[in-house]
C-alpha cells in the first residue's frame, strides 16, 4: 500500500517539515527539464481525486495521534512528487490538518492552477503558499517547463496576481534560473515586471542543485544570482542551503547515517536507496542533497544514471 506522508524532513525553505503527497509520483501539470524527480510521462491539468482520501485521512490521524515528532514540526507541507493542487480533495485535507494540529500549513506548488477560482478559494486558509514562476514568454515556458497543452504562461501569471488580491497570507515566489534558458536580459526583465504585478512577500532566487530530467539543465553561477538580487527589490533573497546541524530530529539523522553507511559499501542511485530503505524518493533526495552540501557524498554519472558515493 502506498504511503502519502513522508518525513519529517529538513527543508531549505521551511525548516523541519512533514510532507503530505496528494498525487501519485510525477503526476504534474509540468515536465520541467530541471526536475530532480525525473520526467513527467504526460503532464495533466485536469483535477481529480488522485489518491484515496480515506487512506490520506488514516495516515494523517495516525501520525498526529501517536508520533512525538509532531511536536517538533516547523511546517506541514502539501508537496511531494507532483502538483498538489491537482487533487480536488485538497480542501478536505486542509480542514483535517487544521482540526488535528496548530502547526502552520504550507503549499509547495508550481502555481499553474491559480487561474481557476475554485483553487484560489481552497487555499485561502493556508499559512504560506510557495509558488514558482520560471519564465514569462510562452516559447520559453514550452521549452523549460514543458506544460500540459491547455496551460498558458500569461494565464498562470494572471492567476498569481488574482491569488495575491484574494489571499491574505504569505506568498513566497521562487524563480529557478537554468543556464542558457531563462537567464537572458530580456527574460529577466519580463520576470521583474511579473513579480511587480504579483507582489509576493518574498522573491526567492534559486538555481539547479540536483541532476534534472535533462542533462541540459545546468546551474547559473552564484555571482549571477548575487548580481541579480537587487534588481528584484528588497523582498528578494537567494535561497541558502539548509544546515543539517539545525535538524534535531533523530529519525532524519539516523536515515542520513544509514545512507552514508550504504554508500560506503557501494555507489547507489536515489531509486536504489528508496527501495532499500522503504522511503519516498523525494525524502531520499532531500537527504542526499544535504549530504552533498556537507561534502560527505558526491555524484557520478554512469550509463545515463546518477550514482552517489561517499567522498572518503
Describe what you observe in this structure:
With 312 residues, the protein is α/β, with parallel strands linked by helices. 36% of the residues lie in helices and 18% in strands. It has helices at residues 53-66, 90-100, 117-122, 138-145, 153-166, 185-198, 222-228, 250-265, 270-277, 281-293; strands spanning 5-11, 15-21, 75-79, 105-108, 128-130, 170-177, 202-207, 236-238, 297-302, 305-310. Strand 7 (202-207), helix 7 (222-228) and strand 8 (236-238) form a beta-alpha-beta unit. The protein is globular, with a radius of gyration of 19 Å.
Annotation keywords:
Arc Repressor Mutant, subunit A; two-stranded antiparallel sheet; eight-stranded mixed beta sheet; alpha/beta; TIM Barrel; 2 domains
Write the H/E string, N to C: EEHEHEHEHHEHEHEHHHEE
CATH architecture of the largest domain: Alpha-Beta Barrel
Q: Mind telling me the C-alpha Rg?
A: 19 Å
Question: Could you list the spans in which at least 5 consecutive residues all have pLDDT below 50?
Answer: 242-249
Please give the alpha-carbon distance between the first and last residues: 37 Å
Strand percentage lies at 15-25%
Structurally, the number of domains stands at: 2
- Main pleated sheet: 8 strands, mixed
- The portion of residues assigned to helices is 25-40%
| Number of helical stretches of at least 4 residues | 10
What is the name of the CATH class of the largest domain? Answer: Alpha Beta
- Let me know the number of strands: 10
Averaged pLDDT, please?
88
Gross morphology? globular
Instruction: Examine the coordinates and then state which fold CATH places here, giving the name of the CATH topology of the largest domain.
Output: TIM Barrel
Q: What is the SS-derived class?
A: alpha/beta
Oligomer: single chain
The main sheet orders its strands as: 1-2-3-4-5-6-7-8
Spell out the CATH superfamily of the largest domain: Aldolase class I
Amino acid at each position: 500500500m502506498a504511503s502519502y506522508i513522508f518525513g519529517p524532513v529538513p527543508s531549505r525553505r521551511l525548516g523541519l517539515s512533514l510532507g503530505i503527497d496528494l498525487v501519485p509520483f510525477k503526476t504534474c501539470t509540468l515536465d520541467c527539464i530541471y526536475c530532480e524527480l525525473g520526467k513527467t510521462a504526460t503532464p495533466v491539468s485536469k483535477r481529480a481525486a488522485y489518491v484515496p482520501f480515506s487512506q490520506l485521512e488514516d495516515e494523517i490521524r495516525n501520525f498526529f495521534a501517536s508520533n512525538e515528532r509532531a511536536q517538533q514540526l516547523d511546517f506541514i507541507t502539501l508537496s511531494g512528487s507532483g502538483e498538489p493542487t491537482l487533487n480536488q480533495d485538497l480542501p478536505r485535507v486542509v480542514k483535517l490538518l487544521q482540526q488535528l494540529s496548530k502547526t502552520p500549513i504550507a503549499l509547495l506548488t508550481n502555481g499553474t492552477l491559480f487561474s481557476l477560482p475554485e483553487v484560489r478559494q481552497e487555499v485561502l486558509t493556508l499559512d504560506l503558499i510557495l509558488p514558482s514562476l520560471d519564465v514569462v514568454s510562452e516559447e520559453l515556458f514550452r521549452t523549460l517547463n514543458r506544460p500540459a497543452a491547455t496551460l498558458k504562461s500569461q494565464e498562470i501569471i494572471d492567476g498569481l496576481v488574482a491569488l495575491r488580491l484574494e489571499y491574505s497570507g504569505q506568498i513566497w515566489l521562487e524563480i529557478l534560473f537554468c543556464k542558457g534558458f531563462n537567464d537572458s536580459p530580456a527574460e529577466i526583465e519580463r520576470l521583474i515586471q511579473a513579480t511587480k504585478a504579483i507582489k509576493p512577500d518574498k522573491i526567492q532566487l534559486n538555481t539547479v542543485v540536483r541532476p534534472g530530467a535533462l542533462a541540459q539543465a545546468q546551474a547559473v553561477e552564484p555571482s549571477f544570482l548575487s548580481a541579480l538580487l537587487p534588481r528584484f527589490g528588497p523582498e528578494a533573497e537567494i535561497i541558502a542551503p539548509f544546515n543539517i546541524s539545525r535538524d534535531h530530529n533523530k529519525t532524519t539523522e539516523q536515515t542520513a547515517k544509514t545512507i552514508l553507511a550504504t554508500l560506503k559499501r557501494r555507489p547507489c542511485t536515489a531509486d536504489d536507496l528508496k527501495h532499500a530503505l522503504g522511503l519516498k524518493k523525494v525524502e531520499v533526495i532531500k537527504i542526499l542533497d544535504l549530504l552533498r552540501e556537507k561534502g560527505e557524498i558526491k555524484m557520478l554519472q554512469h550509463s545515463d544514471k546518477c550514482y552517489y558515493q561517499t567522498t572518503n
